[in-house]
Each structure stands twice: as structure tokens, then as C-alpha cells.
Amino acid sequence: MHGFRRFSLATTMFALLGTLWHPVCLAADEAIVARIEAMEAGFPVQVLGSRLMAHQALSAFYGANGYQPAWKSAELRRQLIDSVEQASHDGLNPADYHADILSGLALRPMSDFSEDLRADLDLLFSDAFLMLSSHMLVGKVNPQTVHAEWTANRRQRQMESVLKDALQRSDITGTLDSLRPADPAYRKLMAARQDLTRLLGQPWLPLALSPTIRPGDRDERLNEVRRRLSLLGELAESPATFSDPRDYDAELESAVMRFQARHGLEADGLIGKDTLTALNVIPVERLRHIDATLERWRWLPESLGDTYVLVNIAGFELKMVENGAEVLRKRVIVGQPFRQTPVFSDRIRYLVFNPTWTVPRTLMIQDQLPRILRDPNYLSRLNISVYRGWGADRERVDPLEVDWPSLNRNNFPYQLVQEPGPQNALGQIKFMFPNQYDVYLHDTPGRGLFSRAERSFSSGCIRVEQPFDLAERLLASAPDWSREKIDRVVSEAQPQTVVLPEPVPVHIQYWTSWVDNEGRLQFRNDLYNRDARLIDQLRGTAEGDTRYNTPVAGSGPAQDKL
């Protein structure tokens, strides 16, 4: 009772302060006051069986509004209903925003309802807006509930103020649209999602995964392969283009290769296990992968930067963008599934030419020690020095004097440092953005791996193909730095650190779907099985208050990555 009494006094004060919105003080709607008081006291409040979710934001909004109804305009209600019904275009579930109730009742004149039901519906509309606007702004799912190594720079706003502004401007549709990620890539993916929905309901029975079908073969499965490739836009089907739909002709081979390229497979024209597995993915599963990517876009900062570097882990690709135009695209190698590359944003601050590599402790014990025990010449062959201790007091020791078999996780008082040179694990350059994960971009001596379709071979860091092209772009605004100077510095084989004139944002992301520069919808394997966890949470019921959507700070130790 004391809690209700205190809150009643507070509501009276809010009503008096409501003149910020209303030139004349209006009496509070007692039905709205009663429901807000109930929420503040911790009681669940339901409207026609649907629970209100945005408790703090609802309380703040109606308090500032003098506890007056906010949704008297049928036009504004219509705008919100349309936006809720179209939430699926963003990969969101309209049911999270009271879609069934709003669509069924809210367009009737408010005079049709009792005072209590009018208050209920007003709160329901506000709750729907607050939840949807919050999810548009920062996403429905907290990224760290999907994976601990995920740091998102989520946008923050007071959603009750967003609702107030939308009502004052009589523009619900425009306000919600403005909260979506502004990058054209998000809108392109939304459009691709809409196009893909036309395949829902199409028969999609599994194709047998063996044997492999080769060009020139005849196979009963090819008739269904043709049908699917036609539906997916890879094949312009015409009865005159082949003599028998079971024959693997040149036209079908070209379509298969296009499909393989769009799905990150070896574009060899062989319809083997991987290609048939990709063809067997039903359209609704593809939609869910798109939904996961749209959600991850909503976790990004409001602006990626005028100039930035973006790495897509699942796509094994890096690109650099300047003033909205892509100026560089390179293949990358990322972490193995048991040493996953984390997702986060930071800024590239400096480059190191001819770097040394101080082997992280985890890798020293798990990777290097077994190799040293197997091969006595391993350290000398790879130009790795051994030091006892750390910092300025460390002492270089002769590897032959170390009792390597006696060392283990609890007894390893050494550092391993690989000197600059062609065998250095970091190659001849690294791009530094100090972070809690000890992850960065770097060169590699193992350049042959870039030809693989799936490139998850590192211990967490990101190896960049042709890294000096990236260095040249990053140093374009630095005085006295040219490609010729870069080549000269590298040839000297001495470590040199170069600080960038302006740090460049770098965004390390995990997208299994996107629309490329030619407008083609691309898909990749869920390398780290991250989509499945995210999709489960996106399909679940929305929970939690939405007044402040702040990121959960990264917790847990930095991991050794290479």
C-alpha cells in the first residue's frame, strides 16, 4: 500500500508538470493512472490477454504526458498497425507487437469501447510502438546471449521521447523507418527477403546427396534441380533449351556454377554432396538466415564511418569503404571453429611492418610445445627466439639448455618470439587495433590457403590476402607514404611502426547472407553455428523492458588469437 501511495503522489506531480505538452492542465485519465501504478508496483498488466512489456518506458511516457490518452487519431493508429504488420520485412515477429489485437479492434472508433478498454488499448498501442521502435533501433536479441565473444556498439535513445516526437509530428511510419539501419545494404537485404517469400509453400523434398552428378551425365534428380534453379533465378527455363530434362547439359552447368558461387562453394559444376545440401535448404530456412543477418545489422553503430574496414567472418572477406564507395575487397582467413574470431568494432590505429610475433601463452603450450618436442630444429628453422621472463628484465636463453619435456601449462616460464622474416606467422605487416581479444589483421606466409572456398584456418586473428594494398589505402592520407616507400621499408626487414593520421574504424562481423554489388543474394555456411542460436531467440517471445537498450559490456578474459 505504501508503494501505491507514494506513486499516487508522484503521478499528481507529473500531471501538474504535464503542461510541457499541454498548454492547459488536463485531468489525468484515471484508468491509465491505475494501470501505470499497477505496473510500477510490480503487477503484470495484460490487455485482452496480451501482456504489456515496456514498463519503464510506458511509465515515463504517460507521466510526461499527464496520463492522457495518446492514440485518439485513427490515422496514427492505422500507421502503427501497418508498421506492425510489416515487421516481418525486417525479420521481426508482428506477434511481439500485439498484432492480432491491434488489427482486430483498434480501428473501430474509441467511443465504441468502455473507459477501461479505451485505456487498455491506448497503452497497448504505446507498448507496441515502444517495443517495435526499440527492436528497430538496437535489435530484439542481446548479442551476448547468443555468443559471449560478441561486442556490439548498440545505439541508445530514450524510447518514450521517440514516441512523443512521432505523435507530435503525426508520423509513426517515418519515425519507425528512421530507426532502421541507414546503410543501403540493410534495405537491399530486406528487399531480397521479400522476393524470397514468393517461394514459401513450394514443394522442396530432399534430393539424394549421392552419387555426384557430372556434366554429360543423365540423372533423375536433374529435373528437380532444374526446377529449383529456375525458381531461384539461376536458370531461365525453356522447353527448347534441352532435349531431356534429365541430361546435364552446358546451360544447366552454367546455372549450377552460378548457384555454387552464390553459396560460397567451389564453382566446379559438379553436383556433389555440398551442392545438393545447399539445394536442399528449404526457402523458410533461407529466410531465417536473412533474419539473423538483419538482426546483426541492428547491433551495429548508427554510422560505420566515412571510411571504414569491414570483415565478414562467415564470408571470408574484407572490404574497405570510403565515402560510401567500396575501394578494396580482399579474401581473408579466419579462426577455426574451436578458435573462433570474435565480433566487435574498433579502430585501426597503427601498422607494423616486418613485425615480430610474441607467441600467446595458450598457443605456446597447446601448439608450439608439441612441435618443439617432435622436431628439435623447429625453433631455429622458424627463427624463433626463447626468453626467460617478461618485459625489460627478460633474458634470452639457448633453446638447447631448456628441458622442454618438463614444461607444461603450470610450468612454462618462457616467451617465444618469432623474429621478422619470410617465415614469420604474421607475414610482413600487421594492422593493429588493441582490443580485449588480442585479435588483429595481418599478412601470412601461407598464401596458398586463400584459394580455398572455406577459409577457417587461423587461431582467431584475420589473415589478409595482398595486405599491402590495404596498407596503401590506409596510408593514402599520410605524408610521404607511397607504395614505393612501403615496398622499400618491407625490403629492409626491420620492424617499423607507422601511426595512421586518423584511426580508421574496423567492424568485424558475422553475416551468412547479404546482397552483393551486382544485386545477387549471397549465402554462406553458418561456420560457427551462430545463426541457429540467434534464430531461436528471434522466434521466441520478446521479453524485457525497452526504455534503455544498453549493451552488456564484454566480460571474460581476452583470448590468444592468430
Automatic annotation (TrEMBL):
<dbReference type="InterPro" id="IPR038063">
    <property type="entry name" value="Transpep_catalytic_dom"/>
</dbReference>
<keyword id="KW-0961">Cell wall biogenesis/degradation</keyword>
<protein>
    <submittedName>
        <fullName>L,D-transpeptidase family protein</fullName>
    </submittedName>
</protein>
<dbReference type="InterPro" id="IPR002477">
    <property type="entry name" value="Peptidoglycan-bd-like"/>
</dbReference>
<keyword id="KW-0732">Signal</keyword>
<feature type="active site" description="Proton donor/acceptor">
    <location>
        <position position="442"/>
    </location>
</feature>
<keyword id="KW-0573">Peptidoglycan synthesis</keyword>
<dbReference type="Pfam" id="PF03734">
    <property type="entry name" value="YkuD"/>
</dbReference>
<dbReference type="InterPro" id="IPR005490">
    <property type="entry name" value="LD_TPept_cat_dom"/>
</dbReference>
<dbReference type="InterPro" id="IPR052905">
    <property type="entry name" value="LD-transpeptidase_YkuD-like"/>
</dbReference>
<comment type="similarity">
    <text>Belongs to the YkuD family.</text>
</comment>
<feature type="domain" description="L,D-TPase catalytic">
    <location>
        <begin position="307"/>
        <end position="489"/>
    </location>
</feature>
<comment type="pathway">
    <text>Cell wall biogenesis; peptidoglycan biosynthesis.</text>
</comment>
<dbReference type="InterPro" id="IPR045380">
    <property type="entry name" value="LD_TPept_scaffold_dom"/>
</dbReference>
<dbReference type="InterPro" id="IPR036365">
    <property type="entry name" value="PGBD-like_sf"/>
</dbReference>
<keyword id="KW-0808">Transferase</keyword>
<dbReference type="Pfam" id="PF01471">
    <property type="entry name" value="PG_binding_1"/>
</dbReference>
<feature type="active site" description="Nucleophile">
    <location>
        <position position="461"/>
    </location>
</feature>
<dbReference type="Pfam" id="PF20142">
    <property type="entry name" value="Scaffold"/>
</dbReference>
<dbReference type="InterPro" id="IPR036366">
    <property type="entry name" value="PGBDSf"/>
</dbReference>
<feature type="signal peptide">
    <location>
        <begin position="1"/>
        <end position="27"/>
    </location>
</feature>
<keyword id="KW-0133">Cell shape</keyword>
